[in-house]
Every structure is written in C-alpha cells, then in structure tokens.
Amino acid sequence: MAKIGDGRIRLARQRARLADVDLESRIASETEYENRKRKLQLRMLQIQQGCLLQKKRAVIVMEGWDAAGKGGAIRRLTETLDPRACKVWPIAAPAEDEKGLHFLYRFWRRLPQPGSIAIFDRSWYGRVLVERVEGWASEQDWRRAYREINEFERMLVDDGMPVIKIFFHISPDVQLARLKERAETPYKRWKITADDFRNRARWHEYETATNDMLDATWSMAAPWHLVPSNHKWFGRIRTLEIVTQTLAGHVDTSPPQLNSELTKLLKNELKYLKNGKKKKKH
Q1: Architecture of the CATH domain 18-281
Q2: pLDDT, tens digit (0-9, with 9 covering 90-100), for 15-68
Q3: Which of 129, 146, 155, 249 registers the highest number of CB atoms within 10 A of its CB?
C-alpha cells in the first residue's frame, strides 16, 4: 500500500491507520513552499468569497498530537481570509455551564453562520481521545460517542455543510524536539504545559484511541485526512490542498457579474467624475 502523504485524498472506503502515514514527506525547498502556499492561499480566498456570496457554510476539524503543527497550519489557512467570515475555535475543557450537558452541545453553539467557515482547533473528538484515555468519560459514554458523532456529522453534511477532518501525525522524537524548542524560545513558552509530557508517557494509549477513532468515524460523508507533519512545510501545504480541493466542489468560485443596475450606477459615477475634472480645468 502506498504511504499516506503522496498527494492523494483517500476515499472513505480506503481507511488507514497511523502506521500508514509517510512521516518523511517533505517540500524540496523554501521557494517551492512559498510558491505553492501563495497559489493555495489565493484559491482559499476565492473559496471564501464564494461562500460569502452563496451563503454557504463549512466546518474544518483539526486534530493531532501535541506540537504536531495544527496552529501553524491554521495560520497559513486563514492568513489571507476575511476574519469576519472565518472563525477559529480553540477547544479546551468544557466551561462550567457546559458540564453536565451533552458533550456535543458546546459545538452546536459554535457552528458557522451562513456565508462563513468554522475551524475547530481540537473538537468533539476529545470525547473518544483525551476523555477516553484519561478516564474522564466512562467506557459506555465514549463508545456511544462514535455513533453520536457520525450522526452529528452526517446531519451537517446533509444540511449542505461540508465537514473536513484532518489529523496531524508526527513521530515521538519530532514531538520531543518541538517541545524542547518551545521551552527554549521565550515567546513560544505559553504553548507548553506539564500535560504535554504526561500525554507523551501515554503515547501508545493515545495511538490506540486514534486508530479506533479513525476506524469508527471514517465515513463517505466526512472522511478523515491524515497529514504527515514531521516536516512543517509539507503539513501546511497538504492542509491547504485538502481544504481547497474539498471546498472547491462545494461552492462556485467564479467572480460574480455586475448586474445592469450596478453597471449603470458605475457608468454614471464615472461620467460625473470625468465631467467634474473637465470643469475644474476651465
């Protein structure tokens, strides 16, 4: 089987596991990276404009290991977008008023408005990942969550809202190197916590939970995309490719035509401006 990372978007029937990801996938040079990034960001801007004009919505889910590059990919994805129509939701533990409610409640509240895109930096998959591994959800609850998540996503897709799910995969050695860099770089220290190291100690448990998640929630309606992220440039470009390729089939990205009324108004304004300048010369 070809390793994931060769540029394909797998179909839902081609389910994969973390071991299938080619972590050595990389971009050859900075010039190639910048050129591809610029083109994909322009494409992303065209897609957002299509969403705005056609009142379309989309959801992007970012999951992955600590220090896997989710934040960097999100920044490149949103860098050229109008922030009024693109919302990034960083997901942590539930707030006090959300505890005791169904775990999907807080995500329902954050779904995008017509014409906008919502990006979840971590998501409802916390129920079957961190809550499962750390014992914060009972086995009955996290097992039931697979069905609830599938039904939730199916409902969003049926309502015309694509759900793009991306998992950023890195090796334990690369993760440790990035955590070390964060600790040694003053402006990056806010990103590192003791939880990062506690989670590393349970790597194999999280790996099992992730593979179970991929098996149970990989559907034709909302397939998973596994992104090799040992090399940051590749992970960012691959993310832009996945999102633009998926959303391009959801919206019409051709520029809108001016209607006859706007054309007439513009023509009159230009005529007025031209005549005004002539009078000023005399």
Answers
A1: 3-Layer(aba) Sandwich (3.40)
A2: 789 999 999 999 999 999 999 999 999 999 999 999 999 999 999 999 999 999
A3: 129
Give 184-208 pLDDT, tens digit per residue.
999 898 988 888 888 899 999 999 9
> Could you tell me whether strands 163-169 and 86-90 are parallel, antiparallel, or unpaired per DSSP bridges?
unpaired
**CA dihedral over 134, 138, 139, 142, signed as positive or negative:** negative
Distance separating alpha carbons of residues 129 and 146, to the nearest angstrom: 11
What angle do the packed helices 139-158 and 203-217 form, to 10 degrees? 40
Residue 128 vs residues 29, 184, 217, 263: alpha-carbon distances, Å: 38, 32, 10, 55
Cα dihedral 246, 124, 112, 42 sign: negative
The token pair that represents 58 in the structure block: 């989309």
Digit-coded pLDDT (tens) for 136-153: 999 999 999 999 999 999
The amino acid that residue 165 corresponds to is K
Query: Residue with structure tokens 């533990």?
Result: 93
Q: What is the mean pLDDT of residues 224-230?
A: 97
pTM for the structure as a whole: 0.89
- Going from N- to C-terminal start, the domains of the chain cover 18-281
CA–CA distances in Å: residue 202 to residues 96, 131, 138, 197, 207: 27, 13, 18, 9, 9
What are 197's two structure tokens?
Answer: 């190291």
